[in-house]
Every structure is written in structure tokens, then in C-alpha cells.
Amino acid sequence: MKLKKIMSAVVATTTLLTGTAFHASASKATILQGDANNDNSVNVSDVAWLSRYLVGKENADSYNITCADATRDGIIDYQDHNMILDFCINKDSNKPITYQAELYDNLNNEERDYYKFSYANGEATGIEEYTLEKPVSKARTYSLLREAEEEYDYDFVRDYSNTGVVKVGNGSGFIVDDHLVLTAAHCVCGGTASNILVAEDLTVTVYNSDETTFKVYTVDSIHVPQKYFDFDDKGGSTYNVDFDYALIHIDSRYDNIPSKTFSQYEPFQIGYITKKFIEKQITVTTSGFTAIPDSSEGMHRYYSVGNIVSDSTDLRYHAYANANYGDSGGLAYYNSVYNEEVIKSAIGNITGGGEGADYDSSGVRITPTIARFIFNNEYI
Fold first, then answer.
1. Which domains does the chain have, with CATH numbers?
2. N or C: the chain end with fewer CB closer than 10 Å?
3. Quick one: 162 exposed, middle or buried, by C-beta within 10 A (0-12, 13-18, 19+)?
4. pTM for the structure as a whole
């Protein structure tokens, strides 16, 4: 996979969402389970609000975030959506409770600038700059957390189930929509802000469960945060790892041909982990196309299980689940359970292993900022 220099740039703008803001006045509050929009009742408007929040269309304060965690497991995801919907449908048999609890911390939900690299016939043809602004609307959320799960430290195991984890060049990625793959920025570009290099002949390869068959998809465009090219203050060649994520859009000319989109695969849903989730060191799973050391098998899809590390930051997660060469761009996910149904909620991408640190993998946390980039991006 070669890299090509891109020079031209076009500036673009976005539209702000508006709404009424509400701020919680204390760190501890009375919580109505599932009252995500803070109207003192649990109804379909909370379902609608949470649906918008999970695609980056809403802003929230700590009270909104706490209330929205209806399952009380420390992650805001579609299982909370399902539980609130259940409250609405089965009002007599399943009712939300009211309780006292400390509020969750706010989640990152900021304005960011991006580059869009367009492709034609496998070659990068141009660059456009754009900004995704922060929504102004507010709502509310709350919940407690399960006890810490048993600690795991699994080695790499062949992954035959996550067909939504794909190969991106020599790295990995994961499907988030019919045309979209989330990956790591360093898998698709390099160079500097004044001399950007992007991958030529970039393709996305999707394998079936046992990797006996595969399909190759053509890239239409890639999208990368501009801050990824902010080098460290030591003058080294390290990129800004807090922004090491990218979105790949496959060729939209094949919209009417299911075999040329990802519609036949199950995309990963996303979830926002909270400080409570991190403090309890809940178990997560990493998955990617790993090149296992000293292996003659080549690159295959592997998973590893381990606990979230408590020193994870607002923008990054650290975990004891392993990552190795080739895993970059793959995902970390949480098995979210409600009514005996399991949803694999993607909490972040993989950008590297521990490299001497007190954890075995790390990556960019999925927050409302990232969700807006994926699901509410008019420049894709």
C-alpha cells in the first residue's frame, strides 16, 4: 500500500443544532431511571432523545448522562434505549425506579476539524477541510454500576464471530454503517500537516466467520481529524494519539447492489463508557486482524479479553486486553446485556499495545464527538 501526497484544500462549514440547556447543580442527585431528557417522566421522548444522543445529535450534562444509563452498568448504549422502550411498552410490569446517586462525569462532546480525502480509481484525488460543530441542545442522564467483574487476562484467541471486524490495508477496522468503517488514522495516512500522505490503492476486505471467503470493497473517501497531525512538543515524529481515528466511506455508486455495501453484515453499535465504568475496571474485548508473533499463519482475526484500566483518560481507554501488530483500527467492545439479549457495544478503536505501559492495549474512546463524526456528518 503506497502513500500519495495531497496538496489542495477547500474550507467547509456546518450547521448548529439548538436547544435549551440544563445544568445539574450538585454532584449527587435524585435520579429517575431512564429519564434521559429530564422532564420528570419516562416516555417515548426519552427513547427519541437517547437515539439522537447516540449518533451525536444531542449535548448532555452529567445529570442527563447518569439518567440515560437505564441498565445501570456504566455505559450509555442501545441496551439503555431498549430498557427505556420497555418501560414505555410494559408500564404495568416494568417500571423505572427513583434513587439517590452521584452524577457521572461529562463525556467529550466538542467541535473538531477534519480532512476529507477523496478517491477515484484507487487514487487519492483531493483534500477538503471541514468542521463538525458541537450541538447546543441539552438533556439529562443517570445510573449506578454493577460490581467489578472477574479479572480476565486472556491471550489471543481466533475470532470466528465478529465478521464486522475487517482488514484495512495491513491494519484493521470495524463496520459501523452500510458504507462506513471506523479505523485508526495511522492505518490510512501519514506525513505532516503541510505534507499529508494518504494511502493509495486502499481497500476494505471483509471475511466470513471462518475466513474461507472474502469480499473487497473500493474506498470512496477517508476522513481524518486535523489534530491528528499535531506533533508532540518534543519535536518527535509521534502523531497526536488522542485523535488517531479515521472513517472510511466505501464507493456509494453501488448503493443498489447489496453485495457492494456492508448491508449484509451486522454493524457494531456504539456505546459511551463513563468514569464509573472505568473505575470498576469492567471487562472488554478487543478484536482485529492480528499478526501473532512467531506465527507462520499470517494475519487472522483474533480477540482478547481483559479489564479496562483505571488510568484511562477522557479521550482514550487503556485495557489489559491484548493488541498486536495488525490490530490497529480494530475495536474494543463491551458485551452489554439486557433481558438476556447481548449487544456488542463498541467503546473505542485500537491504536496500539501497551509498549511498556501498565496495560496491554489502548485506543480512542467513542464519545458523542466521535458519534457525530460517524452518524451525523454531512460531508460523507
1. 173-260 (2.40.10)
2. N
3. buried
4. 0.83
